[in-house]
Amino acid sequence: MSAPRIAVVGSINLDLVARCEALPRTGETVTSSSLLRVPGGKGANQAVACARLGAEVTLVGAVGADAFADEALEILRREEVALELDVVEDPTGLALVVVDARGETVIVVSSGANGTLAQVELPAHDAVLCQLEIPDAAVESAWEACTGLFCLNAAPARRVAVDPDLTVVNRLERETLTREDGLVAVTLGAEGALLLEDGEEVARAASPPVEVVDGTGAGDAFTACLLVSLLEGRAAEEALARACVAGALAASRRGAQPSLPTAAEVDELVA
Q1: What is the pLDDT of residues 184-213, one digit of tens each?
Q2: Could you write out the DSSP letters of every residue in 71-138?
Q3: In whole angstroms, what separates CA 62 from the centre of its chain?
Q4: Alpha-carbon distance 169 to 182, whole Å?
Q5: CA-CA distance, 15 to 11, in Å (whole number)?
Q6: Rounded to whole angstroms, how far apart are CA atoms 109 and 15?
Q7: Which phi and psi angles does 32 have, rounded to 5°?
Q8: Which pLDDT score is estimated for 5?
């Protein structure tokens, strides 16, 4: 079977990740034990994740003409993700991430160049994957141009005028959905995930026990693995179980893109 072709339309950021014992409360200053600079952005993360899982991936996005762009694109290039990028005057997107000792995170994103995406052109594809760190116009353009399966990771949560074939949300993001037509995957953290078809539960999977280190890329790993698994023709229950494994593996490692698992690593833990 040939590798599924996935066009990812989404954000590209450089993540500044500070680790501390506990997340700061309002008005509180805490000391960070370390600071990492790692490539991120939900679009870039999911493109890397899909590539490591065996898909042929093209990322459509935007970066600034600045030094951050090279850092943000480093792992994408290493994973041989094809890049179709607008280079704009706005700065490359930046995310400020704070991670506590339990792996819980607080994230502030400065969209920068990501906010300039509007009308997009897609390469040949079997599926299109979008998230909501880019403007509605770009998501809607990708949906209109899609000739295969359209998958939306509806995060950060908001309503957008598209009708996905597959939607991925967490518990809170699910509240933004106006309807649950098609397939809807709901992630439940350590409890795993469930898959709904036209509002009816068709599969449920547990998350394997892992020591959570950093949950930053877990949702991106889950989304990518679910999509790739379904495109490979796997049954809903198997695809959902593999996605939970991918998410757990990512949560057990530091950083977003560095934490994303390969297909072999998912296969090993599934077995």
Answers
A1: 999 998 899 999 999 999 999 999 989 888
A2: HHHHHHHHTT-EEEEEEESSPPEEEEEEE-TTS-EEEEEE-GGGGG--S----S-SEEEEESSS-HHH
A3: 16
A4: 13
A5: 12
A6: 9
A7: -90, 140
A8: 98
Active-site residue flag, 220 = yes
Residues 148-152: contacts with CB under 8 Å, at least 24 apart: 149/227, 149/230, 149/231, 151/127, 151/223, 151/227
Which residue ranges of the chain lie beneath pLDDT 70? 1
Q: Residue 175 has what pLDDT?
A: 85
Rounded Cα–Cα distance for residues 227 and 233 (Å): 10
Q: What are phi and psi of 268, to 5 degrees?
A: -65, -45
CB-based contact 138:17 (threshold 8 Å): no
Torsions phi, psi for 239 (to 5 deg): -60, -40
User: Residues 103-124: pLDDT tens digits?
Assistant: 788 889 899 999 999 999 999 9
pTM of the model: 0.93
Is residue 230 helix, strand or coil?
A: helix
Chain mean position to CA 17: 17
- The catalytic position among 15, 90, 214, 220 is 220
Contact 150, 166 (CB under 8 A): yes
